[in-house]
Amino acid sequence: MGKGAIGAALLTCAAFIWGSAFVAQSMGMEHVKPATFNAVRFFVGALSLLPVIWIRSHQAGSGARPAGGGRSLLVAGLACGCVLFVGAALQQMGIVYTTVGKAGFITTLYIIIVPMLGLFLGKKVALRMWLCAAAAIVGLYFLCGGGDVSSVNRGDLLVLACAVLFSVHILLIDRFSPLVDGVKLSFLQFLATAVLSLVMALASERPDLSSIWAARMPILFTGVLSCGVGYTFQIIGQKSVNPALASLVMSLESVFAALTGWIVLGQILSAKEIAGCALIFAAIIYAQANLKPRA
User: Fold this and answer.
1) Do residues 244 and 174 make contact, with C-beta atoms less than 8 angstroms apart?
2) 143 vs 142, which has greater pLDDT?
3) Which of 21, 48, 85, 205 is geometrically suited to a Cys-Cys bond with 33, CB 3.0 to 4.6 A?
4) Is the pTM of this model over 0.85?
5) Is the pLDDT of residue 295 over 70?
6) What pLDDT score does 118 carry?
């Protein structure tokens, strides 16, 4: 299996984790407010990576060549962490005011925003990628039941801003991931996001331990899996996958959210929703056909 295929597989796993985490994020809002939830879950995500960093450092000491670090790693971690903090905060606040279905649809608009932003950075986007992105958008619309998205509320606008920030985050990962250690980059961006979220929580939410304990299961799930595993898979996977395709693969989180809701919660998919899933998968497969891996 080539590096491109392995990278795409890791990004697909990340999408599955993020899709199944939507339920946990909504459940967490029943006990704590957005900034508090993000502060604790990103601290948990950072802590979950410490054993991995320790193991990898010992492997490097026994002969493996370590990846780039030092100032480059610090700059990458702070830049990605600041953008991730704003994006995650907007998403959590948006979920409070809008439905999960609309939030999922609007968030995954980054599959269109990423190649658009890439044009300003001099990145060429093939016509096939635009067609696949358009097909995925139609699929996401069907997946959400073809519902009415014309009545935009405050939550919708917050999630739309989140999609823009996540697009910037994808491009930053594309810039830094080939240059530094992926796990250490993931740790630093989580730590930065957690600290910034904590400052925001202390300034506006007055968090308390009893509420955090009540939300412990959603926090652990989103902290260890969604943060620790999912974002690390993203960083490692994007080393061999171009950002436009990466954003398309990661948009599968909406499909996995619907599928896990069906399997775990018994929410049966309609024919229109199944058609949306099929269209998105077809777009992903066609986008990957004959794509050259990153040099």
Assistant:
1) no
2) 142
3) 205
4) no
5) no
6) 77
